[in-house]
Amino acid sequence: MKVFPYPRLRGTVSLRVDAASVKAPEQPRERLDSRARSVIERAVALGLAETEDWESATLAISATIPSKATEPGGPWSDVVVAAVLADRTTNMRVTSRLAPEVEGGREWRGELQVLRADVFDRASLTVQVVATVDGVPGRIIAEAADEWIVDVRSDTPTREQSFDIKEVGFAKGPSWLRSFTDAPWIVNASGTLPTVHINTDFEGMTDVLGAEGRGPEGLVNELMVSQMAADVWIAVFHSAIGDLEIEDDGTPLFPNGWQGEVLREMLPDVVPDRTLEDALREVHRRRVGATGWTELQPRIQYAAMRRAEVPRVLSETVRGLDKLKREDEA
């Protein structure tokens, strides 16, 4: 939990994207229909636009702030509500001031311009309430409880991003895979999405991947897929924890995109009984410190196996093979 040397605004700051449109040079502005936005997912999919070569987008944004922010006699003055769009991949940060619907009101509205070239694929959108406090201007006294995702590529407004799976023969595949010809699969977590490269040159791999049912091949398929998923979880956790941004006081920040989602999902099992922020701080401390990182590896493996459901799949595989054995002996 952060401690601020000045009074902060208590209550919830909510954020909404009410409309979105895109613009290409010398073409009329295209206003996207409601399918491009999801209030539940808190996401905007600009990839839904029919204008394929659009260069800029405009988001209509509204925010609701606690009424105490502008009450007379409060500790804050010169209150400003600003929408903030950021993409850490491109190091982009754009802000736009919102205006109150009525003087001293809780509802604020405005627009924010997005240049497509400034966003790699996804950017995070939030709202900050800034004020002068104790004579110091520009202090952030509150932020939106939940961020929105602005996706310039996807045509579906969703926060979830799945892993990519590619089947390729390692022997004649991309050069970086040729040194892993004896591996059944390799996980690459360095890109926009984690990718599992499945080695189709590995003997029997294609047959096992295509196996179904409760026969021996089907049981092996389920066990292999489960183990593969565990490997993915471990790889993406290490990739995410190795790509943290650190504040001046040494506090690690949750990354955007799938890296942040992976950490929020796994940290409760890696460092149990701690808040997510404390758990992130503890894992970062152990990773960059002299001790503690090695001791944390079993917890990371445990968290990965739980999400890949390795215990359940292994138990079902053992029972399935035992059943097949008894049927053969009967």
Keyword list:
single chain; 29% strand; 330 residues; seven-stranded mixed sheet; alpha+beta; globular
Structural summary, described in words:
By secondary structure, the protein is α+β, with helices and mostly antiparallel strands. 29% of the residues lie in helices and 29% in strands. It is built from 6 helices and 17 strands. It has helices spanning 205-210, 216-241, 257-270, 276-288, 293-308, 310-329, and strands spanning 14-23, 30-31, 37-38, 43-45, 56-64, 76-87, 92-97, 99-100, 107-115, 122-133, 136-143, 148-151, 164-168, 185-188, 195-199, 245-246, 252-253. Strands 3, 4, 6, 7, 10, 11 and 12 form a 7-stranded mixed sheet that branches. Strands 2-1-5-9-8 form a 5-stranded antiparallel sheet, with no helix packed on it. α2 packs across α5. The longest helix has 26 residues, at 216-241. The radius of gyration is 25 Å and the shape is globular. The chain starts with 13 loop residues before the first strand and ends with a helix. The model has no long low-confidence stretch (mean pLDDT 88).
Please summarize what this structure is:
This protein is α+β, with helices and mostly antiparallel strands. The protein has helices spanning 205-210, 216-241, 257-270, 276-288, 293-308, 310-329; strands spanning 14-23, 30-31, 37-38, 43-45, 56-64, 76-87, 92-97, 99-100, 107-115, 122-133, 136-143, 148-151, 164-168, 185-188, 195-199, 245-246, 252-253.
